[in-house]
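# step 3/5: fold
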Amino acid sequence: MRQTDKSDPAEARAQRAYHARCRYRFRLACLGFALAFVLIGGRLVSLGFAETKEAGGGVYDISTTVHRPDIFDRNGRLLATDIRGATLYADPKRVIDRDELAEQVASVLSDVNAGSLRKRLAVGGRFVRIKRELTPKQQAEIHELGLPGLGFIEEYRRVYPVGATANHVVGLVDVDNRGLAGIEKFVDNNPQLTMMNAPTESGDEAVTVSLDIGVQHVLREELKSAIDTYKAKAAAAIVMDVHSGEIVGLASLPDYDPNHREQALDKEKINRIGFGVYEMGSVFKVFTVAGVLDLGLANLNTTYDASSPIRSGGFSISDFHGKGRPLSVTEAFIYSSNIAMAKMAVHMGVPRHRAFLKKLGLLDPVTTELGPSAAPIVPKHWQKLNTMTIAFGHGLSVTPLQLATATLPLVNGGIAVKPTFLPRSREEAMQSSERVLKPETSAALLKLMRMNVVKGTGKKADAEGYRVGGKTGTAEKVVGGRYSSSALLNSFLAAFPTDDPRYVVLVMLDEPQRVAVTKGYATAGWNAAPTVGKIVARIGPILGVPPKLEDTASRFDAKVSASY
């Protein structure tokens, strides 16, 4: 092999050119490798971010849930809020073994059917939702399986911290966090509502309702106790501010926990206050008396003959504990005389009686933020006999919400106020309210209601210090097309304090039984009335109603004009 002559200039130049080309190629190769590294690295980083977004931020892309405003009670206590929860999904194109994945996932999540999951994976696509609302433990166990094709996204999940306590008002949402009922549905239909409420400390929008969760707790607890004590099928109650129309408490049992939305499918767990329609019995007598007084047809001393039953068309109207003599309006109310009430209604006449009930809202649904109440069942052909039976609470079926709302003008001075589940001042309520009764009529009804608790059928509703007034109602339910004396719907309609009315309370018990604690009686004075008494004694302090140990009779009587 010939050695290069280093002294040859041409050869030296060639050598230098060769080395220069080598260095150039080397640098080019290095640049190529560097570029490839950057491209591959960049792709890996982008995939990493995409995976992170899919796993942690999926609520913004493939998730179908929506973010909702928090709901608070009137005192700022949380009733509903959103939290983020893990949702397990699969990408069928990345799944290696569908059978293994389905079996392994089903072994961790007992409510996932392996066969069904296997079929869904076989359909293809890029997203198969497997299970929402995983617990942290379930998420960790799925992660430890290490199966390709599985992933997690965060989705909004609605949580109700107070459980069933306010369920019928707050309502619930579907799996996509969209409102199904109650205030939740109202918020979806009225997005501007959140603009009217102050945001939370975190800046999120919020909605405040008129409910007081303390009152809610009392209602629910006392209704549960009443069901247990009197062996009733169901119970319901409502508390309303007589001046603003705010509903500060509403409970209906049996109820459901909105954290477990499947419970709401039980037809027995409806909101009986707004969507149950009933013949309410003798509580209706407050409207009959109000009618004859307001129309100027009678005063508290006017008498109606109740000495014998009324017979009309084969139908007989009698009294439960008849006195067998004429009764004044006051006596007829305290003794709860069906005969006297029927004659008062006839005294009004069918047209005026019907018009008076319509004016109070008893013949039309009541609309609130929860939507229209159930429609009342009104006689198609309203005759004289209908007027007589409706006078004492039979023959016209209404919702308890209608009845409580119609009571407001009877105790607040004569002003018809629309009910609401949103906070509202008395001044705001008056802007959309109208006078439907004379102030003197309201004062007379308050006197009668208080007298009924002091010495009538409502004695057991008396909560010491809170000057409760009210009226009992014991209605026979229709069973097999006939009224049944063993199936009763009992209620007690109350207002307190009667010398300065602030709240109406209505309690309803469905089919309470004759038990030892009631000495074998099943009428409202023995079960619905004491339930109201217990409720008022507990919610009075919560609502800031000052108790008075002495009943100021002189002040009370001064409100009733001489004509009554």
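# step 4/5: annotate
The CA atoms of residues 479 and 487 lie 8 Å apart.
# step 5/5: archive (pending)
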